[in-house]
Design goal:
Order of helices and strands: HHHHHHHHHHH
Helix content: over 70%
Structural class: mainly alpha
């Protein structure tokens, strides 16, 4: 699955992670402040936040873009020279492009979050009968919103288009890899289904799940500082009272609680889904043999195989039912959790309507990123099941122990 598309996956992915962590440490420890020497440093404290299209071309942003491009160029060049691979343009630079476009998309969301405070504060002032807010002011703010929204849509469409091609190339690489071993792979039961159906489903799920995961991680890192900055507006939380960084602590604790809760509740589901696929395969195999051999697919045999399959599915349905109970309660509670956390601050009148909207949006972005598992668990289960089948298939035609992957 991975060696067909990425150069030496056992080294590539750890090296990519280490290189990324190193670049982050260098950025925050040294390079971030180095831009000031070239007139591209951080804005001075108290400088008004740039909102609109100018948000994306501030000096500190341009410095960050150049820094990232340098680190990416060095990493890609080393791998392309040291371990050339037929798909390295797509697997290395294509992956970087997807990460970069998702980062830019998240930054448009940050820009929209910054836009909310002046817009909703202006609405509150106008509703209170305050002078100085005209219809032109509100229309101007909506025009700024439309500019940001257009940029977001353009990036979203381009990212999805490129990602579809990227994932199809990955599927193509897998297909060519499996077909290069076809003389041995063809003897394995269900080989055609693994090569055609499972690679297609793997590609489709990776396109959906992988992009969502990337965006969740980037959103988390983008909005954590925003939420930390907004925490000074909130003096206390219900029950716990005064704590440092209250919004950040509440978002992290609530999200981790939900993630652990659903991980424990659904821990058996991937194995049960894989068991369903095995009973399906046994049932399908007997029917296929029965097409050419009248002695096969005897009614008693078919009934027994179908009964085994039914028992496997009913066990899966039972476990999924109580998983949905926990997931349903958590999702409903999550809809009002941020509002509950803000009640003491709202009652004390310490925040404006615009700040409240900004906090709710940032809080939702952070908790939504942490709760990636909550919303994607069903798809993750399917991906794990496909991964097990493909790993078993690969182990079988490379003469490796199949038991190692649970097949």
């Amino acid at each position: 699955m991975f060696r067909s598309f990425f150069p030496n996956p056992r080294l590539f992915f750890p090296s990519a992670l280490i290189w990324t962590l190193l670049s982050v440490l260098v950025w925050y420890g040294y390079a971030r402040h180095l831009g000031a020497r070239f007139g591209m440093g951080l804005p001075a404290p108290g400088t008004p936040q740039v909102i609109g299209l100018g948000f994306f071309v501030t000096p500190d942003f341009l410095w960050f873009y150049g820094y990232c491009a340098l680190w990416v160029a060095v990493f890609a060049a080393v791998w392309m020279i040291a371990a050339p691979h037929p798909w390295h343009w797509w697997s290395i630079l294509g992956s970087v492009l997807i990460l970069a476009s998702n980062y830019f998309s998240v930054q448009t969301t940050v820009d929209l979050n910054e836009w909310q405070r002046p817009f909703y504060d202006a609405i509150q002032k106008a509703l209170d009968g305050g002078h100085g807010v005209t219809a032109g002011d509100l229309y101007h703010m909506l025009f700024i919103w439309s500019q940001i929204a257009i940029v977001w849509m353009a990036v979203y469409i381009a990212t999805n288009f490129f990602t579809s091609h990227y994932v199809f190339r990955w599927r193509t690489a897998m297909n060519f890899y499996y077909m290069s071993h076809w003389p041995r792979a063809r003897r394995i039961e269900g080989a055609a289904q693994r090569v055609q159906e499972d690679t297609a489903r793997f590609a489709a799920i990776v396109e959906d799940l992988g992009v969502s995961m990337i965006q969740s991680v980037i959103t988390l890192f983008a909005f954590l500082p925003v939420l930390a900055g907004l925490s000074h507006f909130v003096s206390e939380l219900p029950i716990v009272g005064h704590i440092a960084e209250p919004l950040l602590v509440a978002a992290v604790c609530w999200s981790l609680f939900g993630t652990v809760l659903l991980a424990v509740a659904g821990i058996k589901l991937p194995g049960l889904a894989f068991a369903n696929q095995r009973t399906e395969a046994a049932y399908r195999k007997e029917l296929v043999y029965g097409e050419d051999d009248a002695a096969r697919a005897h009614p008693l045999t078919v009934r027994e195989l179908y009964g085994t399959m039914r028992q496997s599915y009913f066990r899966y349905f039972f476990h999924f039912a109580y998983f949905n109970i926990f997931r349903g309660f958590y999702i409903q509670a999550d809809n009002v959790f941020a509002n509950i956390m803000l009640i003491p601050t709202i009652v004390a009148g310490k925040i404006s309507f615009g700040v409240m909207q900004q906090i709710l949006t940032a809080f939702g972005q952070v908790t939504g990123s942490f709760q990636y598992l909550v919303g994607s668990w069903t798809t993750i289960i399917e991906l794990l099941s496909i991964h097990k089948r493909l790993r078993g298939f690969e182990k079988a035609f490379t003469s490796e122990p199949v038991e190692a992957v649970g097949v």
